[in-house]
Amino acid sequence: MLEGKRIIVGITGSIAVHKAADLVSKLTQAGAEVDVILTEAGAQFITPVALRALSGRPVYTDVFDTRAELAISHVELARRADAVVIVPVSATTLARLAHGFADNLLSLTVLATQAPVLLAPAMDGHMWENAATQANLALLKERGMMVVGPVEGHLASGRVGLGRMVEVETILGALRQMLGRNGDLAGRKLVVSAGGTQEPIDPVRYVGNYSSGKMGYAIAEAARDRGAVVTLVSAPVALAVPYGVELVAVKTAEEMRDAVVARCADADALIMAAAVADYRPVAAAEQKIKRSPAERTLELAPTPDILAEVKGDLVRVGFAAESQELEKNAADKLARKGLDLIVANDITAPGSGFGTDTNQVTIIDKSGASETLPLLSKYEVAQRILDRVVPLLKK
User: 167 lies in which domain range?
Assistant: First the structure.
């Protein structure tokens, strides 16, 4: 998503510049070509030498620098940029941009570019809440600039309030969403399920499975990066929600059924990556069941078949986690549930089980045609699945 992209990172005067340095580093590691524009105030907090070491490229500081790599730096940087990210954004810079000032290299570049602009503000809480700051912010949003944050937290003043810059992972998510907003899923609504449902036995125990939710979350992230409006219906997991994705938190199979069916009413596609429990206890005990030497029997009842209950004209993709006869069992499930695609993986294969960051899958369509992918990251697997979903949506 970021490999080969030309990203301008503008850095202004704020104690939060250490996060800007981390952003430059992560963008470079992701394969982006990063051009840093450091304002005079920003240079009071970090040096061009440090930023050049992180980006491996020249750092631009002065519009009149005759030693700069590019002639008329602001024009050339602006022309070739895929995106501009200003992080942190000070109150002064918000005012400069809102009123079209052209008094430093960063503001000149923003004036000259046609690329989308992402702003990550950081300042004292009272400065952020000031009417002038909010008016400038509203004006920039009206012009199409994307703003992420700030958030509540400890500020440089020692106070706690709204004004702390968001974390780098949030900025990266917002950037990827911004770059993909005209992608091949732009305007499409996707519902994605993730995680393993928990069916209560008593207040402290449940029937569940080993699902980590990583595959479903990767699909939600990849769909967002291609311009989709994504709703993620998730059972409990230890994962951060991708930026820009709506989360609907559920626990049981019945709760997931209700959430999925409701969200699919106006959706274009459903991708059921969740590991939904097939059975639930017939009755959950109101109090904790105490240990005893006597044997206990747990009576189970089937849970709802969510895919069978989703009606309407939408693309439906299921998953089959199997430990034997992979393609046979997956093809049977695809036919029984009337799916457009099914994604099958052998949970016993190395790097392909629950909790891994990689997956090796076979994708089968309703004609019976199948494609077995090599071991890939779950994000790349998600992209391959979406490559199959896009043409189905066009039909």
Answer: 6-179
